[in-house]
């Protein structure tokens, strides 16, 4: 489990007992709410709420550390690129200019630009933890049935289910190959240089991708032989009907979404402006 990236873990907590459809709707609606607003109060509250949900679900740091680190690096790179292409965008949005650091030419840092970049980065930590939480607390088959419940074709839903089932297997195979390579003297740990690690991991990942494609073809052929997709509808073994708890979860998501829309009118736009 420690090595799994997005694998389902079985438990009997409150979040695990919810229907996959309600968790999917919560993830989608809250993500839309966070993406459509730049109100720091709302997205910061959602980010803190996400952390509490991860703790409530019993998800350990080892299981999500790679995802968090990857998203952090991506967020930092995104912030740097946004600043390089529009160093005064925050100043234009908030209609104020408070210089924190003098620079060269157009490259100076204002509190408005820093505030905008902070909000931009915070959006990642509103949506990504929810996605991880959903994938790690929802059985792949239940995920497929939840997609079918909200109107997605069962063929597409089943393809997604197979993908989620296969991810842990690919990860496990990757770690096994890497440990075998390290046992043969190929250093892939933190002791090796960054470029050496990248090259070494690519030597494992590329053949693994091609072997995975071969397995996909095998699975597709087996499903065709069993006449998968012949009927317009199908039943689900792991289908779970909506309960009162599911209704409360969806209601909470709708409240968050409506709050983001309400803040649009209160702030007279997408941005919360503490300077006005």
Automatic annotation (TrEMBL):
Question: Where is the protein found, in the record's own terms?
Answer: Membrane
InterPro entries associated with the record: ABC/ECF_trnsptr_transmembrane (IPR003339)
Membrane topology label: Multi-pass membrane protein
Q: Which protein are we looking at?
A: Energy-coupling factor transport system permease protein
- Predominant subcellular localization, coarse grouping: membrane
Which is one Pfam family of this protein?
Answer: CbiQ
Residue intervals passing through the bilayer: 24-54, 66-86, 114-136, 248-266
Q: What organism, scientifically named, is this protein from?
A: Streptococcus henryi
Keyword terms, alphabetized: Membrane, Transmembrane, Transmembrane helix
Name a single GO cellular component: plasma membrane
PANTHER family linked to this entry: ABC TRANSPORTER PERMEASE, PROTEIN ABCI12, CHLOROPLASTIC
